[in-house]
Amino acid sequence: MRFLVVMFKEIRDNLRDKQTVFYALLFGPILMPLILGGSIIGSLKQLSIDFDEVTTLTVVNGDSAPNLMDFLHSNNIDVVDAPDDPEKAVRRGDIAVALKVMPSFNEALRAGQPAPLTVFVNDGDKESSKQARRVITLLQAYERTIDALRLQHRGIDPNVFNTLDISREDVSLDGAGGQLIASLLPFLLIISMVMGGFYLAIDTTAGERERQSLEPLLSLPLNRAELVLGKYGATLCFVALSCVLTSVSVFFLFKFFPTDILGGGLNFDGPTIFKAFLVASPLIAFISAVLITVSAFTRSSKEAQTYLGVLMVIPMAPFFILQFVTIRSELQSMFIPMMSQYQLLEKIVLGDVTPALHIALSVLGTLLFAGLLLLLAIRLYSRDRILM
Fold it and tell me: Is the Cβ–Cβ distance between 40 and 261 less than 8 Å?
């Protein structure tokens, strides 16, 4: 149990390091979920259109199209008079969107020709672009109504032109947006775990080598395995704490977002977050082993930061790969650390079935790789090169 002495020593030393405490307890668990989660959910909210929301629309020459104005009013849009220069008002951001009924609108309708309308929109403004999509969608619906009436007036059944009746049914639990938000949880958990132990792992090996405090530590009456386990245990504590704090942070973060944005299939309640934490917990051992092994391989803090900085791409890779490539949750992928956790945690958030065999293989594979890396770290510490 002598490794516990080393572990508590490393924990005590690193609690004095403000940089380590910041990344382990604040940046990864709190700031990162707020930044990434808030931006992604905000983007989805910006893209979604709520047709039940009552809003106003600035219209030029609206009196020339009373039926169109009534149609817009029936779809929760209140028409208001336009300023003198609606185009400039939209460009300045004074109003989001403006609709101009062209002077030839009524003549074109009576002649059975396309009636001209102009929608002024500022695509550089997200709110203007969103409002324009809603207005144009409603105008297209009004156009289909007029088309059907024209055909009926000429004694033609509008269904004659409907050659195919195609219906599209999304059988996924919550669509592409839901998949993106669901993959956000494993991404945040894994990144926070890496950040939680990043600086501690560097300081306990490369940092001590530079401070020349590693040699006195190696002269203590304990073998190299106990020394590595002590440093590994300290890193494990910081990584685990980051994972716990991130789980709590994500739970409270998604409490502030309405369910219509998250989607009906997504679930971030207490039991779901706790189950996700348990499934991701083997990564605590794996990530700690990766950090310790890479730090033992390097010769200086700068070199360790470079190597570990490159390794930061690894936990990010599954998140971006799964956005573009569909990888089935099969037995082979369950044996791969990080990839299996991404797939399992997505299923948990989406409320899908997570087979016990898949979870068991994920835990087994992750802990096996963690053990192999830990053995490699012990072997690196057993060499005289560790002091150079």
Answer: no
- Provide the residue range defining the domain that includes 303: 3-45+174-387
Residues 288 and 378 in one domain: yes
Give the closest residue to 143 by CA, choosing from 108, 115, 105, 104: 115
Domain membership of residue 166 (yes or no) is no
Three-class SS string for the chain?
Answer: CCHHHHHHHHHHHHHCCHHHHHHHHHHHHHHHHHHHHHHHHHHHHHHCCCCCCCEEEEEECHHHCHHHHHHHHHCCEEEEECCCCHHHHHHHCCCCEEEEECCCHHHHHHCCCCCCEEEEECCCCHHHHHHHHHHHHHHHHHHHHHHHHHHHHCCCCHHHHCCCCCCCCCCCCCHHHHHHHHHHHHHHHHHHHHHHHHHHHHHHHHHHHHHCCHHHHHCCCCCHHHHHHHHHHHHHHHHHHHHHHHHHHHHHHHHHCCHHHHCCCCCCCHHHHHHHHHHHCHHHHHHHHHHHHHHHHCCCHHHHHHHHHHHCHHHHHHHHHHHHCCCCCCHHHHCCCCHHHHHHHHHHHHCCCCCHHHHHHHHHHHHHHHHHHHHHHHHHHCCHHHHC
Kindly state whether residue 284 falls inside one of the protein's structural domains.
Answer: yes
| Rounded Cα–Cα distance for residues 141 and 124 (Å) | 26
pLDDT of 58-68, one tens digit each?
999 888 888 89
Answer whether residue 10 is part of any domain. Answer: yes
> Is 62 within 8 Å of 79 (Cβ atoms)?
yes
Task: Choose among 110, 106, 107, 116: nearest CA to 150.
Answer: 110
pLDDT tier at 174, thresholds 50, 70, 90: very low
pLDDT tens digits, one per residue of 123-160: 888 788 888 888 999 999 999 888 888 888 788 887 77
**pTM more than 0.85:** no
- Take residue 66 and report the two structure tokens written for it: 């009373």
